[in-house]
Amino acid sequence: MLIVIPDLLPRAEALALRERLIAAPWVDGNVTSGAGAALAKKNRQLPEDGDAAIEARAAITRALAGNAQFLAAALPRTVFPPLFNRYGPGERFGAHVDNAIRLDPGSGQRIRTDLSATIFLTDAVDYEGGDLVIEDEFGGRAYKPDAGSMLLYPSSSLHRVAEVTKGERVSCFLWLESMVQDGAARAMLYDLDQSVQRLTASLGADDAEVLRLTQLYHNLMRRWATA
Ligand SMILES: O=C(O)CCC(=O)C(=O)O
Ligand SMILES: [Fe+2]
User: Fold this and answer.
1) What residues flank ligand 1, with Cβ below 6 Å?
2) Does 167 score more than 90 pLDDT?
């Protein structure tokens, strides 16, 4: 399942974050690459321990924790601390798959990457190229949403960032382990959750069918989720 959350951050906040981030010192993006990805990757990343990165990471983490659509779709168990990247003219990230297991630098804990996300901090009109292209069973599709939007996609997919030819693309990116490992199960839970939300709004939480579907949702979670 791939979803776009158009307003993870208010656009103005995303643009302000971008301004603060670009003023900080950046390094070669290959610091977090696996051996395969390093060959394909040509971009820059913000070191994790600078003030700007720490502040921005906290803002993104807060936004994720408060976004009902993200929580329902991802069912996050552990979110890898968000990182930041930028691509100027001539920079790109060729087709790759993200490493299955990552070490959380803070806790030393291993995280299985179920979902990958990019949170765009630049409006689409401000750079050329730079589309995030994600392959699924039906082929590749390019995404280039405006600042503040998040694209959430399966870490199992091949994906790439097209070369930027003008302007600059600045983003936050992250991986997470979901409480529900199986993507098909997670997608069904999300559909059910969205229907329950809508039916609750029109029929009320104590409607008998709403109650039964709510019960079904939680009982499927009991069956499929690892808390
Ligand atoms: O820049 C992006 O949108 C994606 C970055 C990416 O795929 C990665 O760092 O593995
Ligand atoms: Fe990636």
Assistant:
1) 85, 93, 98, 118, 132, 159, 161, 171, 173
2) yes
**Phi, psi (5° rounding) for residue 205?**
-70, -20
What are the φ/ψ torsions at residue 7 (nearest 5 degrees)? Answer: -135, 50
User: Cα(21)–Cα(85) distance, rounded to whole angstroms?
Assistant: 10
- 51-65 and 11-22 helices cross at what angle (nearest 10)? 160
Query: Looking at the CA of 170, which ligand is closest?
Result: 1
Amino acid code (one letter) for 142: A
Q: Which of 48-52, 111-115, 129-133, 192-196 has the lowest mean pLDDT?
A: 48-52
Q: Residue 174 C-alpha to ligand 2 middle, in angstroms?
A: 9
| ipTM of model | 0.99
Distance in angstroms (rounded) separating the CA atoms of residues 29 and 33:
8
179 DSSP assignment: S
For residue 91, the number of C-alpha atoms closer than 13 Å in the C-beta half-sphere is: 18
What is the whole-number distance in angstroms between the Cα of residue 215 and the centre of ligand 1?
38
Domains in the chain (CATH in brackets) are 3-178 (2.60.120.620), 183-224 (4.10.860)
User: Using CA positions, which residue lies closest to atom 9 of ligand 1?
Assistant: 173
